[in-house]
Fold:
Amino acid sequence: MDVQREIDTRGLNCPLPILKAKKALAEMHSGELLKVIATDPGSLRDFQAFARQTGNELVQQETAGTEFIHVLRRR
Structure:
């Protein structure tokens, strides 16, 4: 997967991972991919809701140990 930007939100709790992702997506071009690494278990449902509400596509979500990886495509 060709990710254009990656942000590390490990150690941050809701709503900070979403806010940082929103800011990063605003600086990106349509179709580009953003990878967010988080440690907040609530981020799984938060990013699903964020994608639905904003029209950005949630391309992938995975759990790797205590980390949650979200990949979003900018609308």
Notes: Strands lie at 5-9, 33-38, 57-64, 67-73.
